[in-house]
Write a structure and sequence with these properties.
Length: about 210
Amino acid sequence: MIKLDPPGRSTRPPQVKPLWDQGWYRFAARLPSPNFGPRPAGSLIDLIVLHSISLPPGQYGGPEVAQLFTNQLDWNAHPYFKQIEGMTVSSHFFIRRNGDLQQFVSTHERAWHAGTSQYRGRGNCNDDSIGIELEGLEGDRFEAAQYESLQALSAALMCAFPIRHIAGHEHIAPGRKSDPGAGFDWHALQQGLGLNHQYFPLSPGR
């Protein structure tokens, strides 16, 4: 005997949506940036690069970072913006102080976050890395909600790509960049992800 579902009700299990859709993460607000390009053929995406950013520096919660990554920032809105006027940059992800997650570039594409860089014996880290910006200042501490979002995102990335390294901008461009800085808790990230130390840079701040 075939049992039919009552009208308006269903006993069938709901469909589970995939975490990724052509490189876009299901749990991130999608804000497409024009600042990206193709990855070189055969790129091995095995590196996550962590950054910190706030616009204007030290001010949180506004739309300015998203505006920068989408080429919509008003260069006249704050004196600091004149120092970066005309800059065309992006990151794959941005994690706000409250843990909210935004995505600007598909992980299948090359975001413009690393600049001149070298790590694990390879240069041009934009080619084969995922860039994640944390809302914050270099050297300052980050919020628990940010670590929670970062851990969940990193775990999802590790399911989608052969990630073997997680480093800061300071590690791939030493002397030129110093973010996320000493305020970032590398040990907390390592413990939260359950990874051994080989995934992380050998750094006094870790």
